[in-house]
Amino acid sequence: MVHRQRHAGPFPQGTMTMKRRPLSLSVAALLAAPAAAQPATNAAADFAVGPQYDSTHVYVAAEDVGRFVASFVATFGGVASKQGVFQVTPTPSRTISQVAITPAGMISTFGFETPIPYPFGLERTGYLVTDIDAAVAAARKSGAVRLVETFPDPIGRDTLIQWPGGVNMQFYWHTTPPHAAPLATIPENRIYLTADAADRFVAAWIAFSHGRILSDDRAAAGSEIGKPGTVHRRIRIRSGYGEMAVLVSDGALPWPYGRELAGYAVADLAATLARAAAAGADILVAAHDDADRRSAIIRFPGGYIAEIHAPRVAG
């Protein structure tokens, strides 16, 4: 991942091979240099620092890392690090890594040149926390389990955890708190579950994150998940870790629904889709109205699938 050596700018220079570099380092270099940014001071009991420090973990083929990141940045704006080649797991491995910070959210991209050690590659997000030991203890008390016990890295510590329903995520912590400007819009962590696990997941996540349920629609239009003429349950949650949509159905979803990890909020959906198409992305689900938003689903070069949405215009 991106290393923490300091340079004139906020990005690492060149490509380098290092000993173990855990997942948190994918965001370290971009966040290490405070440039007109607000320090992370939200050290509340929920351990959240802020959604600008939370990244979606994207795994693509090694040869696709550069064109994926370039397409993502062309679509949403922002900046990307230079590529690096690192060992990011506690066990031997080698991956190309590149990070992008955009006004709509951060991504950490991995293109492994070796087989991916278990259980890495299964996590969907990486969340910066104020105290990793306390955060892990609170998560376990709330119903999560550790996939990997907390391990050290040169600038902090990392762990992977799993919530009810098989929702996997990373927690990371930095010895020196990073600084980053707030996002223009907050991405939505989109989690598909069946009724078997939905209530347990929501209860566990709320208990840990101290979040609040913004809405719980038990008769949301099935067209939102590709099943017109049916209904599903849609739960929207907000916490210090950002936005979350829990989409509850029978689990039988038409492609590409359920494959998107995140939904990105933008001001102008048509303009964003035009930029995405020009940057090589495929429009999998055309723009359409869903409840209070207009949304589409796209596939970036390399295969990363994302939902994009804008507020629905009344009238």
Question: How does this model look, in words?
Answer:
With 315 residues, this protein is α+β, with helices and mostly antiparallel strands. It has 2 domains: 25-174, 2,3-Dihydroxybiphenyl 1,2-Dioxygenase, domain 1 (Roll); 188-311, 2,3-Dihydroxybiphenyl 1,2-Dioxygenase, domain 1 (Roll), CATH 3.10.180.10. Helix content is 18%, strand content 37%. It has 5 helices and 17 strands. The chain has helices spanning 25-32, 65-76, 132-142, 195-209, 269-278; strands at residues 55-59, 79-80, 84-86, 95-102, 105-112, 125-128, 145-153, 156-163, 167-174, 188-194, 212-221, 231-239, 242-249, 262-265, 282-290, 293-299, 305-311. The strands form 2 sheets. Strands 1, 2, 3, 4, 5, 6, 7, 8 and 9 form a 9-stranded mixed beta sheet that branches. Strands 11-12-13-10-14-17-16-15 form an 8-stranded mixed beta sheet, with helices on one face. A hairpin with a 2-residue loop joins β12 and β13. The termini are far apart. The model is unreliable at 1-23 and 33-44 (pLDDT under 50).
